[in-house]
Automatic annotation (TrEMBL):
<dbReference type="GO" id="GO:0005634">
    <property type="term" value="C:nucleus"/>
</dbReference>
<keyword id="KW-0539">Nucleus</keyword>
<dbReference type="InterPro" id="IPR027756">
    <property type="entry name" value="Ovo-like"/>
</dbReference>
<dbReference type="GO" id="GO:0000981">
    <property type="term" value="F:DNA-binding transcription factor activity, RNA polymerase II-specific"/>
</dbReference>
<dbReference type="Pfam" id="PF00096">
    <property type="entry name" value="zf-C2H2"/>
</dbReference>
<dbReference type="GO" id="GO:0009913">
    <property type="term" value="P:epidermal cell differentiation"/>
</dbReference>
<dbReference type="GO" id="GO:0000978">
    <property type="term" value="F:RNA polymerase II cis-regulatory region sequence-specific DNA binding"/>
</dbReference>
<feature type="domain" description="C2H2-type">
    <location>
        <begin position="109"/>
        <end position="136"/>
    </location>
</feature>
<feature type="domain" description="C2H2-type">
    <location>
        <begin position="24"/>
        <end position="51"/>
    </location>
</feature>
<dbReference type="GO" id="GO:0008270">
    <property type="term" value="F:zinc ion binding"/>
</dbReference>
<dbReference type="InterPro" id="IPR013087">
    <property type="entry name" value="Znf_C2H2_type"/>
</dbReference>
<feature type="domain" description="C2H2-type">
    <location>
        <begin position="80"/>
        <end position="108"/>
    </location>
</feature>
<feature type="domain" description="C2H2-type">
    <location>
        <begin position="52"/>
        <end position="79"/>
    </location>
</feature>
<dbReference type="InterPro" id="IPR036236">
    <property type="entry name" value="Znf_C2H2_sf"/>
</dbReference>
<feature type="domain" description="C2H2-type">
    <location>
        <begin position="137"/>
        <end position="164"/>
    </location>
</feature>
<protein>
    <submittedName>
        <fullName>Gastrula zinc finger protein XlCGF16.1-like</fullName>
    </submittedName>
</protein>
<keyword id="KW-0479">Metal-binding</keyword>
Amino acid sequence: MWSPPGPFQLQQSPQAPRKRLAKNQCADCGRVLSSASALESHASLHSGKRPFACSACGKDFPNLKGLNRHAHVHGEQQGHHCPQCSKTFVYRFGLTKHEQMVHSGVRPFICPICDKRFVIRRDMETHLRVHTGEKPFACSLCVKRFKRRVELNVHLRWHNGEKRHWCSYCGKGFLDYNNLKAQICPHWGETLHLH
């Protein structure tokens, strides 16, 4: 079906067909974001554009949300300080969450199957998938499914052919560091040449 080119249409060159992307998936790195606005914000990491600058210190940001969050640093109140480790948080809820997770030792959420305890309900719900086998995150490019979104994101990078770790001896690239470490090259002696 042909339609005239418009401002929001994807332009494809005939010699280099684009890979199919999942909803809210970054075309540059394969990461899947939670929303279209999160994807738009994430895309600025690849473009390098940081048009929002702080008038107080000059630090620049890719979006207005980041600049506004940063602005609290220069306000009258310099943040919320943890009395136990002197870490500082812009928002009070950040300090409260930090105190609960790091210092209180309280883990109110308990797995009903194995009694493992968690600070955050979402972590307990994710853990339950170990017992149930549920895999709610489906790859749109193949039939694989995953228990956690982060696992899907790594898998999508594999589809995109992304390589992040390279053997300095033979030049072979790998998606993750563990695959690089596990690589058995006959020309490697006892010493691994890892980057």
